[in-house]
Amino acid sequence: MSAIYTQKNRIKLIIVIVALLIGAGTVVYTNILVQKLAEREQQLIDIYAKGLRFMVSSESDDNTVFIQEEIIEANKSVPVILTDGDENVMDYKNFKLPEEISEEKKARLLREEIAEMKAQHQPIVVEFGEGFKNYIFYKDSKLLTQLRYYPYVQLTVIACFALMAYFAFSYSRKAEQNRVWVGLAKETAHQLGTPLSSLMAWYEYLKYTPKFENEPIVEELGKDVRRLEIITERFSNIGSVPVLKDENILKVTENAISYLEGRVSKKVRFTIQADFPSHMPAKVNIPLYEWVVENICKNAIDAMEGKGSIDVRLSLAGKNFIAVDIRDTGKGIPKGKLNDVFLPGYTTKKRGWGLGLALARRIIENYHKGKLFVKWSEVGKGTMFRIMLPR
């Protein structure tokens, strides 16, 4: 099942190619049928012309009646117009003209029909000798026209239903994934609640015990307990609408980096700078935004194997967004994997669920209405992630 999920783009491409082949086969086969039917209609008009010529030249009343009833009148589908040598209408067949129409308007409509027939087929000339001739103009029957356009109408309808099914399936799958995310987050917050309460009690006990007075480890323990509270709050916020406020984005980012800096290898060097005034606000939910920054930085630290530099740069991106670029000096990401890193379950580490970047993108795009993507990456040189936040 995992292999199918990771190959979903290739599978989609195969399905599209197969659908196109089926559609092309349908069109080709229908066109063959249209061609055969068109040839039959051509033969019918040829017989019509021969019958007309024979009827005019025949001296036998029986033959004339046979030609009139069995050949000429047998044409019930192909629209035809019979004219003299000057293209004056003598007779027409298989046309629905408006009732109670004037002769002038009828003549105009028939002339328009003749122009359309000329565009489709060359008229058939019926010669009677001594330079006397008639023209038979004709066009495709209604059945032939319908058959010619039927496959395209059919493919359009199928495509519309396919799109509707695709969007319905995507929405259903996304909704199911959201329920899984929310359930997992709520359960995690619930599971953290009990040991966190115990840790808070132990911290309060140590804090007010004279034996541990002024012990730095107690203060650090307090920071970690407060951090666990923030993490629990983050998981609790998943699935609910977070409150976004105008926050000093530089200060919030510095706080997130500062917390990490004291808890990772000293061989990892952090720098942070902003290309705008230090008080510039952005609409964020602080616990969730800090979570995103931490996830990206922790992945960077893993990619650098605990040694290298992480540079954070904040800048304006147009009038409506602030860009937060986080660049590391790690292994880099192959070009074919730039989008895969955001897929749930994707990981290059021996341990882990591969949910960090998937959650980070969900937090930025679903909750903050921003964007998270790989702006640059080169194997052996590093990677830069960009967070786009609304101002």
TrEMBL record:
- Pfam families given in the database record: HATPase_c
Q: What is its EC number?
A: 2.7.13.3
Q: Which UniProt keywords apply?
A: ATP-binding, Kinase, Membrane, Nucleotide-binding, Transferase, Transmembrane, Transmembrane helix, Two-component regulatory system
All copies of the Histidine kinase domain together span 187-391
The entry lists its GO molecular-function terms as: ATP binding; protein histidine kinase activity
Task: Show the catalytic activity.
Answer: ATP + protein L-histidine = ADP + protein N-phospho-L-histidine
UniProt keyword S-adenosyl-L-methionine, yes or no: no
Swiss-Prot/TrEMBL GO biological process terms: phosphorelay signal transduction system
Transmembrane regions: 12-34, 149-169
**Enzyme type, top EC level:** transferase
Domain of life of the organism encoding this protein: Bacteria
Q: Which PANTHER family match?
A: C4-DICARBOXYLATE TRANSPORT SENSOR PROTEIN DCTB, SENSOR HISTIDINE KINASE
Q: What is this protein called?
A: histidine kinase
The record lists the lineage as:
Bacteria, Pseudomonadati, Bacteroidota, Cytophagia, Cytophagales
